[in-house]
Target: dipeptidase E
Amino acid sequence: MSVRNLLLLSNSTIHGSGYLEWAAQHIQDFLKSKEVKKVLFVPYALRTMDNYTETARKKFTSWGFELDGIHTSVDPVAAVNNAEAIFIGGGNTFQLLKGLYDNKLIEPIRKRVLQDGVPYIGSSAGTNVSTVSINTTNDMPIVFPPSFDALALVPFNINPHYIDANPGSTHMGETREERINQYHEIPGTPPVLGLREGALLKVTGDLALLMGLHPARLFRPGKQPEEFPVATDFSFLLK
Model:
């Protein structure tokens, strides 16, 4: 049985609220259930890492948790190996994944999460890198990681910030659904879970539960996309 503990958020901020406010109770309950006191924050998705870390620190401190930015550590691998919990924030997914590779953190994070059961929180880009690959990110490739292969904490992909097509729009470019379907034209690609803003997936061992404010849309190769309501058990995606 898997020991993983993941909280995968589509996004950190929704319209009309502040940073992580919509998911505050989910995050606090998640960390307190594992008796976490200090969180290791990975801010590689943005270039302004000091400011980004301070934003996260203020929020987590207000909830009663300490938070340190991994970018200030002289040994990032040691920081991961000693972490009580890991939070990887959003920004540019390509930049984030490159930072993980550059600092040789892919395997250490995988080991800590999948073998040691260290709690992992991802938001947006941090959720992208928790999956099989970053092929279904919405971001621009502003830098080039050595591979699109990601942490593979779950055996499928997620599309954070999933947006439904607007039938009244005159925009002629591909919809998000069309782009995911194009991805699935490539043989061997995994399912993709479209997480709308304000949705999250909580993974505990071999159980995956949709939580938050909105339903999710699931894409599987050779099948029509399907809608699933909040509280859906997505454990079948882990098999």
The radius of gyration is 17 Å. The CA atoms of residues 3 and 205 lie 5 Å apart. The chain has one domain: 5-238.
